[in-house]
Amino acid sequence: MTTPDAQAPVAIPGFTHVYSGKVRDLYAPDGRDDQLLLVASDRISAFDFVLDPPIPDKGEVLTRLSLWWFDQLADLVPHHVVSTDVPDVVVGRAVLVRRLEMVPVECVARAHLTGGGLREYVADGTVSGLALPAGLRDGDRFAAPLFTPSTKAPMGEHDEPMTYEAVEAEVGPELAARLRDLTTRILARGNEIAGERGILIADTKVEFGLDVDGTVVLADEVLTPDSSRFWPADQWEPGHPQPSFDKEFVREWLLSAESGWDKASGEAPPPLPADVVERTRAKYVEAYERLTGQTF
Ligand code: PZK
What we know:
This protein is an alpha+beta fold. The protein has helices at 58-72, 115-124, 164-171, 173-195, 248-255, 274-292, and strands at residues 15-20, 24-29, 35-40, 45-46, 49-50, 81-83, 94-98, 101-102, 107-112, 126-127, 130-131, 141-147, 199-210, 216-219, 228-232.
C-alpha cells in the first residue's frame, strides 16, 4: 500500500487537471480552449525536494503578491490574468488566465551576482557570456540588470544557461530583443519598488507568451519569492551568500544536526517542525505586507 499524498492536486468541478509543477498546478476549463486555471499550492521546495508539511497560506500569499505586481507592471507589459473569480476549493490561490503560446525560453534577469551567475563568473569571468570586471563578489549589484536566459528543462532536470545568440536563433532577433528589454525592465521596476520597502530582488525568472495577434504577454507568476531571490536589504553584505528572505529557517533547520538529514544522501528530507513552518509562513506574509503595504 502507498501513502496517500496530502499535497496532491485537488479535484476542481468543471476543470481537468493538466499538469503539476513542484508547487503549482495547472487545470483546463472543460469545454473551452482559450483559458487555463493556475493554482498555487501551499507546497514548498528546498534543495530540489518538495517538503512536508505544506506552509499554510503560502499559495494565497504568492497569488495575491503576483496579482499586485501585475498591476505595478501594467504600463510595461500586458499580463495574462482574466479573473480571480474561481471555484470555491481554490478561491484566493488561483487565477483564470488567457491561454497563450508560451515562449520556449526561461527569461531570467539578474540585478546581483549570485547563484548560477556567480558560478559562471568564477569559472570564466562572464555571466551569460557577457564579460564583467574582475573582483566582483557574491552579492554585488550590477550597474543594470543583466538578461541571463536559460532553456526550459522538463521537471526534475535543471535549466541550462543560454546565450543571447541562442535565444535569437530560437525565437528570432526581434522577439529576443523584446524579451531582454521586458525582463530587465521588470526586475529594475521591481527593485525600485521593493528597495523602498527594505527588500532587494537579486534575480528573477519570468515567463512570456504570445497572444493570437503576436503581442508579448507576461504569464505565470511574477516577482514572488518562488520565482526570485528576495534578500533583506538591511542584511545585505557582499562577499558571502546572503540570507534568503523566505526559506532561511527551512534551509537552516534541514542542514542542522537537529533534522538528522544528510543533504548528500539523496534521501527525502524529514518533515519540518511546527515552529519552522510557522516562522516560514510569517516570512511570506511579511514579504507580502512590506511590498504591498496591505495586511494579509
Ligand atoms: C503555462 N506553465 C507553467 C505554471 C504548472 C505549470 N497563460 C498560459 N498559457 C499557456 N500555458 C501556460 C500559461 C501560463 N502561465 C504555464 N505551463 C503552461 C506552469 C503553473 C503550474 F503546473
